[in-house]
Amino acid sequence: MSNQPSTLFDKVWDAHVVRKIEDGPDVFFIDRHFIHEVTSPVAFLGLESRGIGVLFPERTFATADHNTPTINQHLPVEDPLSANQLKALETNTAKYGISHWGLGHAKNGIVHVVGPENGITLPGMTIVCGDSHTSTHGAFGAIAFGIGTSEVEMVLASQCIMQPKPKKMRITINGKLGKGVLPKDAVLYIISQISASGATGYFVEYAGEVFENMSMEGRMTVCNMSIEMGARGGMIAPDETAFAYLKGREQAPKGEAWDKALAYWKTLKTDEGATFDLEYTYDAANIEPQITYGTNPGLGTGISQHIPKAEDVLDGGASYAKSLAYMGFAEDDTIIGKPIDYVFLGSCTNGRIEDFRAFASIVKGRKKADNVTAWLVPGSHIVEAQIKEEGILDILTEAGFLLRQPGCSACLAMNDDKIPAGKYAVSTSNRNFEGRQGPGARTLLASPYVAAAAAVTGKVTDPREFL
Amino acid sequence: MAYDQFTILKSSAVPLPLENVDTDQIIPARFLKATKREGFGDNLFRDWRYNPDNSPKADFVLNNPIYSGKILVGGRNFGSGSSREHAAWAIYDYGFRCVISSFFADIFKNNSINVGILPVTVSPEFLDKIFLAIEKDPKTELEVSLPEQTVTILATGEKESFDINGYKKHNLLNGFDDIDYLRAMKEEIGAFEAALLF
């Protein structure tokens, strides 16, 4: 063993290398594999055509989320193609003995919400899923990232993938986040600073006072969006906040196993003197509530700012002009006061209980604007139950909002929740790509506070006015 | 899924000089509902390629008959966003075997190799040369040699080398895939698994 100082990332990575290939990728062991109905069916077909089975079925967990409707979940799914994918997941998981939380199951919800809330996600683990937002689980000090369907098949077949080790980046934010500034704002700020491709080829560790003081929900929001700066994933060293979150969760270790795990987890931090390939440091005082104006998550700014001119943007040029034209915005426009049509609270980025608490704290005692259609979608049935238990549902109802049932919903619009062409949506999801929330939809990414302020005023509004 | 061998590809190319082409554009989410890996090419770049009434958009490059070939040339940060392998399937199914850009998103690059498409990263300067050559003559042929790891603009002879991981190169040249390799390690993986804390 070397005594060289090492990073959190190195510690977890190196513990999972089964074999190193000369001039090739590492054979990388996967502790937890999440699957859902969209990116797994072809992987199961692959196993079948090879005539092989699933090596460790107990290490894979299935949930239905991408396609599921958010109303009338007790009825048969109307879209025959969606119903077919859901059925395929059910059949495949039953055939190979994989745990499956399908539509209607008490623990069903978005894969990146249900993994942590049931204690399936643990520090020091390697976690993959055929979904780029698998990076969410890095909030617990796990190495977690999205993979393609061929790799889903690899994990089912061998519990390993072939993975070259990424480079390491550390992003530090010092100081304290200001009033009305949420974890979503912190990560949107970072992406706007380094661009939608600024961390490609890297795995990111988030460090500094802001993340140390952040709740687990907040850390999940931040790690979730690591992929939006191109990173393979993001992670945060597990600490007392993480341990307290995990203790007692259904599938987390108990008793002696907990003590043993805890002793290991406490070693999972970057040693003093360990080095990164690239470092960025920011001051929390410079971060105000953020909002995007373009068609990638890097095209965002502080809510009080003007839309930048092309020459001031990292991705300026032909793509920038195309982006603003799609959004119906112009260089140097103000964003505050732009009328909006839809608000979406939900997704694996901001569909957790804290997000609903934040949203409710602003709409409490106010009314939904008449020109706004609001889709409020919890990330899981457990979140939905909390919303009811904590009285948040009453606040939402009094303000004129309806609560929908859990799922990915309008984040990627694979179900019926599609923003119509040309309409503006303030969305707490993770992507503002062209057509992401429906063909022709125009998405402004923002925090639950900004979404709530927009929902009650009908236009882009600085939420600090209401706090 | 095993795929075709890739050695030397000589073809004209289709230019898409836009940055940050994300996988939601390559294949929108509403076309991910199949349970088989077939027919995705019809919906490649669906919303850039067709109007809402399904008539082709005349100004989109795939609808312009002067461009054709098995090579797609994209702008910087090609394939960002969603991990959906369907994007690579759509590109392959449409008939492309190689994508050239100055910068690829990681997951897309991995997915491409896993389905038998060669992603070739060239310098921004060489990418511009390729775009200029195609602009000058849409029939311009490129030669992509995997054994030599080079891209050549045949009309001018301009050439650049590209990097590829040795293991991945070997697989592409031979049409092997990772699962065969991993299944042969079953015992080693089993022993590794048995020693884990979780």
TrEMBL record, chain A:
Enzyme class, first EC level, given as a word: lyase
User: Which metal ions or organic cofactors does this protein require, according to UniProt?
Assistant: [4Fe-4S] cluster
> Gene behind this chain?
leuC
What is this protein for, i.e. what is its function? Catalyzes the isomerization between 2-isopropylmalate and 3-isopropylmalate, via the formation of 2-isopropylmaleate.
Q: Any idea what this protein is called?
A: 3-isopropylmalate dehydratase
Any single Pfam family the record assigns to this protein: Aconitase
Ordered alphabetically, the record's keywords are: 4Fe-4S, Amino-acid biosynthesis, Branched-chain amino acid biosynthesis, Iron, Iron-sulfur, Leucine biosynthesis, Lyase, Metal-binding
Q: Name one GO biological process term.
A: L-leucine biosynthetic process
Aconitase/3-isopropylmalate dehydratase large subunit alpha/beta/alpha domain sequence ranges: 10-458
Q: What is the lineage of its organism?
A: Bacteria, Pseudomonadati, Bacteroidota, Cytophagia, Cytophagales
Which reaction(s) does the protein catalyse, per the Swiss-Prot or TrEMBL entry? (2R,3S)-3-isopropylmalate = (2S)-2-isopropylmalate
Q: What is its EC number?
A: 4.2.1.33
State the Gene Ontology terms under molecular function: 3-isopropylmalate dehydratase activity; 4 iron, 4 sulfur cluster binding; metal ion binding
Q: State the organism named in the record.
A: Runella rosea
TrEMBL record, chain B:
What EC numbers are recorded for this enzyme?
Answer: 4.2.1.33
Q: In which pathway does it act?
A: Amino-acid biosynthesis; L-leucine biosynthesis; L-leucine from 3-methyl-2-oxobutanoate: step 2/4
SUPFAM superfamilies named among the record's database cross-references: LeuD/IlvD-like
Keyword terms, alphabetized: Amino-acid biosynthesis, Branched-chain amino acid biosynthesis, Leucine biosynthesis, Lyase
**Gene Ontology cellular-component terms listed:** 3-isopropylmalate dehydratase complex
* Molecular function terms, GO-annotated: 3-isopropylmalate dehydratase activity
Q: Does the keyword Lyase apply?
A: yes
What is this protein's record name?
3-isopropylmalate dehydratase small subunit
Quaternary data: Heterodimer of LeuC and LeuD.
Record organism: Runella rosea
Per the record, the GO terms for biological process are: L-leucine biosynthetic process
Q: InterPro entries in the record, alphabetically? A: 3-IsopropMal_deHydase_ssu (IPR004431), Aconitase/3IPM_dehydase_swvl (IPR015928), AconitaseA/IPMdHydase_ssu_swvl (IPR000573), IPMI_Swivel (IPR033940), LeuD (IPR050075)
Asked if the keyword Lyase belongs to this entry, the reply reads: yes
Matching Pfam families: Aconitase_C (PF00694)
Q: What does this protein do?
A: Catalyzes the isomerization between 2-isopropylmalate and 3-isopropylmalate, via the formation of 2-isopropylmaleate.
Q: Which reaction does it catalyse?
A: (2R,3S)-3-isopropylmalate = (2S)-2-isopropylmalate
Family membership, please give it: Belongs to the LeuD family. LeuD type 1 subfamily.
Q: Please list the residue ranges annotated as the Aconitase A/isopropylmalate dehydratase small subunit swivel domain.
A: 5-124
Gene label:
leuD
PANTHER family found in the cross-reference section: 3-ISOPROPYLMALATE DEHYDRATASE SMALL SUBUNIT (PTHR43345:SF5), 3-ISOPROPYLMALATE DEHYDRATASE SMALL SUBUNIT 2-RELATED-RELATED (PTHR43345)
Q: Which domain of life is it from?
A: Bacteria
